[in-house]
Design a protein that fits this description.
single chain; about 575 residues; alpha/beta; ABC transporter transmembrane region fold; Rossmann fold; 2 domains; six-stranded mixed sheet; four-stranded antiparallel sheet; elongated; cell membrane; transport; ATP hydrolysis activity; nucleotide-binding
């Protein structure tokens, strides 16, 4: 079983996970159940009052009881309305609270899942499990559970009342119950797998929508609108087909749950009518039977809808709980080691790494970086540069070997402490839809503003910030959309400098900046990172030359290492990699 793609949970494990969330709302649940019990009692009382009105006031000649009994019925009906309102309010609160808690649990889990999880699952699928999949859970846990119990209360209460009046006639009325039970079981058995398929298809549809919106520039630039539209249409058609299949099952079974109770009414009309004609059953009692049986039509129909809703909810919840139960964050020791004070060395011993079941990306890398040293990691596309850098902040664990910071295995450190000590600038700078100031302070909100300004000067942010509408308070759009690619990279670099980390990992941090800006950044970078250990991956020789040492990766192995100028003169893999740039240098 994949540790980042576990199968959906079965029914009972899903219910075991749902129960604690439901139990957290036990006060509101208790209020809802109490109101449901009172509502049921009042619903049973109204037909009894009608029966007594008919037998005593209308048929029995006690006309003085007519108005008082009618008034009592109106009071009971008003009370029933009030308790029904309170029940619906309480159950709505329960459903909304459970929905919020489940979404919160998923979101909290998303923040701890390893990068391998996000490599395996599309963004749309991840979003869908915390949005689309939760809505059926809300309605089932809120309205469905209490309504189901209320329906059962109504069935039991009606059976008691009817049996106390005429046991034989009550037995005739119950003749429809066995086929109803069989129909309900078969319906639940058929609709559950379809409900799972519907939720999966909806996740695929969300994935297609997300990819189209996120990649809209490429879609429009390359004229791929028709392809994207066709892909979305295929996913939408799959959702429609599964939903129609589900509707087909519902249309075959749910009408039966409405029809079968009428058989009981028909039996009472026939046998009860004969007894009423013979005088062994009063008109009021006959009316009581008919009234109660008519009141049972909705509870029986509601049970069918609740079963359908329950199948959808458990199918949806099983997907979310499969991730919550089956995916573990990167393991941490209960008694984590501490990093030493001062600058940190970085060492890799026999490191091997592969993504999932793919081929090996790193094959026995041995590397030692002294505290405060700047090392450039070079290599052709796909050589493993980014993979090597991602091991330092422990986004992944090596398949074999060790990564050590300050002489301590990264797996022995607390993740939070490790990542406070390692700052990162990725190839694609990630900015948040908050003011520029908050983006810069994301890793260290309490940083001194003078320190922030110095980092912005070193990273080249100061060169363009005055041109922004509100300077450092300018709201940065989603993913930094209102900044250029080079500006986003400079903000990300400044953020890494402000973080105060003792190790800085720079993955091609200047790929989107112009040559003049790059010269400015290179000139200021060494002084900005003084005393910190730096790993930098770059595709430009001018970026690499800032390093004290350069190494070349090829096929997952270090094939060359040394001073950049010495490697150029050696004419080996390094000089070959940078071609004309190396000759010019």
């Amino acid at each position: 079983m994949s540790t980042v793609d576990p199968p959906d949970l079965a029914l009972w494990p899903t219910l075991r996970n749902l129960f604690p969330l439901w139990w957290e709302q036990r006060r509101m649940v208790a209020l809802g159940l109490a109101c449901a019990l009172v509502f049921t009692g009042l619903s049973l009382l109204i037909p009894v009052l009608i029966q007594r009105t008919i037998d005593r006031a209308i048929d029995g000649g006690e006309k003085r009881l007519l108005l008082p009994t009618l008034a009592a019925i109106l009071v009971v009906a008003a009370l029933r309305f009030a308790f029904n309102f309170a029940r619906r309010y309480a159950t709505a609160r329960v459903g909304i609270a459970v929905e919020a808690r489940l979404r919160e649990k998923l979101y909290d889990a998303y923040l701890t899942y390893p990068r391998a999880f996000y490599d395996r699952h599309a963004t749309g699928e991840v979003i869908s499990r915390a949005t689309n999949d939760i809505y059926p859970v809300r309605y089932f846990i809120g309205w469905g559970v209490v309504q189901a119990l209320q329906s059962v209360m109504m069935l039991v209460g009606a059976a008691i009342v009817l049996t106390s009046v005429n046991a034989r006639l009550a037995l005739y009325a119950a003749l429809a119950m066995p086929p109803i039970a069989v129909l309900t079981y078969v319906f639940a058995h058929k609709v559950f797998p379809i409900s799972r398929a519907v939720q999966a298809r909806k996740g695929h549809l969300t994935e297609a929508s997300d990819e189209a919106v996120v990649g809209i520039e490429m879609v429009q630039a390359f004229g791929r609108e028709d392809d994207v539209r066709a892909r979305f249409g295929t996913r939408a058609e799959a959702v429609r087909a599964e939903t129609m299949r589900q509707a087909g099952v519902e249309s075959r079974f749910l009408p039966g749950l409405i029809f079968l109770p009428l058989l009981g009414i028909a039996a009472v009309l026939y046998f009860g009518g004969r007894e009423a004609i013979a005088g062994t059953l009063t008109i009021g009692q006959f009316t009581l039977f008919i009234t109660l049986l008519l009141q049972l039509v909705w509870p029986l129909e509601a049970l069918g809808w609740i079963i359908n809703l329950g199948q959808r909810a458990t199918a949806a919840a099983s997907r979310g709980f499969a991730w919550l139960d089956g995916i573990e964050p990167l393991a941490e020791r209960p008694d984590p080691a501490a990093l030493p004070d001062g600058p940190l060395a970085v060492r890799m011993e026999g490191v091997r790494f592969r993504y999932g079941t793919g081929s090996e990306v790193l094959s026995g890398v041995d590397l030692e970086i002294e505290p405060g040293e700047i090392v450039a990691v070079c290599g052709a596309t796909g050589a493993g540069k980014t993979s090597l850098l991602n091991l330092v902040p422990r986004f992944y664990d090596p398949s074999a070997g060790r990564v050590l910071l300050g002489g301590v295995d990264s797996r022995d450190l607390a993740l939070a402490g490790l990542r406070r000590s390692v700052a990162l600038v990725t190839q694609k700078a990630v900015l948040f839809s908050v003011p520029l100031r908050d983006n810069l302070l994301a890793a260290r909100p309490d940083a001194d503003w003078e320190e922030v300004l110095a980092a912005c000067e070193a990273a080249g942010v100061a060169a363009f910030v005055d041109g922004l509408p509100d300077g450092y308070d300018t709201l940065i759009g989603e993913r930094g959309v209102n900044l250029s690619g080079g500006q986003r990279q400079r903000v990300a670099l400044a953020r890494a400098l402000i973080a105060g980390a003792r190790v800085i990992v720079l993955d091609d941090p200047m790929s989107a900046v112009d040559t003049e800006t790059e010269r400015h950044l290179v000139a200021n970078l060494r002084s900005a990172v003084a005393g910190r250990t730096v790993l930098i991956a770059g595709q430009r020789l001018s970026t690499v030359l800032v390093a004290d040492r350069a190494l070349v990766l090829r096929d997952g192995r270090i094939v060359e290492s040394g001073l950049p100028q010495d490697l150029i003169r050696a004419g080996g893999a390094f000089a070959e990699l940078f071609g004309d740039e190396a000759l010019a240098a």
